[in-house]
Amino acid sequence: MRLLIVEDEKRLAVSLARGLTAEGFAVDVVHDGLEGLHRAGEGVYDLVVLDIMLPGMNGYRVCAALRDAGNEVPILMLTAKDGEYDEAEGLDTGADDYLTKPFSYVVLVARVRALLRRRGTAGASPVLRAGALRIDTAARRVFRDETEVSLTAKEFAVLEHLAVRVGEVVGKPEILEHVWDFAYDGDPNIIEVYISALRRKIGAASIQTVRGAGYRLVAA
Predict the structure, then answer these.
(1) Tens-digit pLDDT profile for residues 172-215
(2) Which of 33, 47, 120, 139 is a Cys-bridge partner for 57, taking CB atoms 3.0 to 4.6 Å apart?
(3) 3-state SS string for 122-149
(4) pLDDT value at position 64?
(5) DSSP assignment of 149-194, as one string?
């Protein structure tokens, strides 16, 4: 999953990015509302963490502009303000959730995961299944039959992205786009390393290579 943080407090932004990266997310950070609007408008993000008080364009206007353009990316708003009118304004512009500074990092991660689970069908299960595999996206745990499989954060992120498209072919560019941040300029064949590691851990037949197209997590 790829997240965008739009936050002008650089120390906070870096701290959040490090923490969320450790949780297995690919995280991009910008410090200006206009740049945040441009990045979010590219449509490659699974969620945006958006501060309200920003230079260039405030968070309310960024959120409203995205919604006016038909962009339905989940938005978690952050603000140093406090009060029901500020919260109401944020939600009225189209934000999905609201968090007032100072906040607990644990709470922020919980809100992020809840919003990601609610994407698409409301109340969708946080557990993804593919044949003998059970992928608990909330607990970040993977089971093959009843045996737990230990994965690194990045391995889990790759598997999760394949699992949300189970049975479909997912290309390397899409995996890179959602699992690695925009600053990654290394060898795109790094994906093959992670696919190989996953096959060793969850079974070689679980992930098929579709030559010239990408990879498919088998449904049964």
Answers:
(1) 888 887 787 666 667 778 899 999 999 999 999 999 999 989 99
(2) 33
(3) CCCCCEEEECCEEEECCCCEEEECCEEE
(4) 93
(5) E---HHHHHHHHHHHTTTTSEE-HHHHHHHHS-TT--S-TTHHHHH
Contacts of 76 by beta carbon, 8 Å cutoff, 6+ apart = 47, 48, 49, 50, 95, 96, 97, 98, 99, 108, 111, 112, 115
- The predicted structure's pLDDT at residue 121: 41
Task: Report whether 210 contacts 216 (CB < 8 A).
Answer: yes
**Residues present in the chain in total:** 220
Q: How far apart are CA 156 and CA 138, in angstroms?
A: 12
Buried b (16+ CB within 10 A) or exposed e, 159-194: bbbbbbebeeebebeebbbbbbbbeeeeeeebbeeb
Residue 126, both tokens: 């946080």
d(CA 204, CA 54) in angstroms, rounded, equals: 48
- Helix, strand, or coil here: 102? coil
Question: Helix, strand or coil for residue 14?
Answer: helix
d(CA 66, CA 40): 8
The confidence score (pLDDT) of residue 89 equals 60
Q: How far apart are CA 44 and CA 52, in angstroms?
A: 21
